């Protein structure tokens, strides 16, 4: 899962997209996305609902082909300037981004990032009851352990935003990662983390 601009050009037929608004969370299902991907997206939406909306928020599922004749689809497309043509499929995890600082893992404690002292990043460093930030190039990953408290998860997101808006930092992006739903690109930052078929 990675964060992309709220622009029509970000959408494609091959992926799932989640649009989080103040009153409603939209799940856009690309026509070529799999049932497994759609199921995982629903779990992520439930996590967002519990974490950022205190469990109280409407959820709408938008099919790729739905246009203005559906009320919720019409609402969704208004955020993108109206219905329009989207691409077949593109990858939002671009390995060709300009390089920045070398990878550094932080354990977020009481909303503050504390560097993890290690010479080798391994998946064993990520504890399920904690949250971590991983600075890698111009990307800031926020890893949210399933057992971490709501307060810790909110603190980690805030800490990432503070890093992102540091005036001394080059233009970067924040990518939120939930334990159990790590992308192949995130796993590749760690030694010995095997990639499954779904990561290809």
TrEMBL record:
<dbReference type="InterPro" id="IPR007123">
    <property type="entry name" value="Gelsolin-like_dom"/>
</dbReference>
<keyword id="KW-0677">Repeat</keyword>
<feature type="domain" description="Gelsolin-like">
    <location>
        <begin position="116"/>
        <end position="182"/>
    </location>
</feature>
<protein>
    <submittedName>
        <fullName>Villin-4-like protein</fullName>
    </submittedName>
</protein>
<dbReference type="InterPro" id="IPR007122">
    <property type="entry name" value="Villin/Gelsolin"/>
</dbReference>
<dbReference type="GO" id="GO:0051015">
    <property type="term" value="F:actin filament binding"/>
</dbReference>
<dbReference type="InterPro" id="IPR029006">
    <property type="entry name" value="ADF-H/Gelsolin-like_dom_sf"/>
</dbReference>
<dbReference type="Pfam" id="PF00626">
    <property type="entry name" value="Gelsolin"/>
</dbReference>
<feature type="domain" description="Gelsolin-like">
    <location>
        <begin position="4"/>
        <end position="53"/>
    </location>
</feature>
């Amino acid at each position: 899962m990675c964060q992309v601009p709220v622009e029509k050009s970000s959408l494609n037929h091959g992926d799932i997209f989640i649009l989080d608004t103040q009153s409603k969370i939209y799940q856009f299902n690309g026509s070529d996305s799999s049932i497994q991907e759609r199921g995982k997206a629903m779990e992520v939406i439930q996590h967002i609902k519990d974490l950022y909306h205190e469990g109280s928020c409407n959820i709408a599922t938008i099919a790729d082909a739905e246009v203005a004749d559906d009320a919720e689809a019409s609402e969704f497309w208004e955020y993108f300037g109206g219905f329009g043509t989207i691409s077949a499929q593109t990858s939002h995890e671009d390995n060709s981004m300009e390089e920045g600082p070398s990878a550094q893992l932080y354990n977020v404690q009481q909303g503050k990032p504390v560097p993890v002292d290690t010479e080798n990043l391994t998946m064993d460093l990520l504890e399920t009851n904690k949250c971590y930030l991983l600075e890698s190039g111009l990307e800031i990953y926020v890893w949210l352990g399933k057992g971490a408290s709501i307060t810790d998860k909110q603190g980690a997101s805030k800490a990432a935003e503070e890093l992102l808006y540091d005036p001394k930092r080059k233009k970067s992006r924040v990518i939120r990662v939930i334990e159990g739903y790590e992308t192949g690109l995130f796993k590749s930052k760690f030694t010995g983390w095997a990639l499954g078929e779904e990561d290809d």
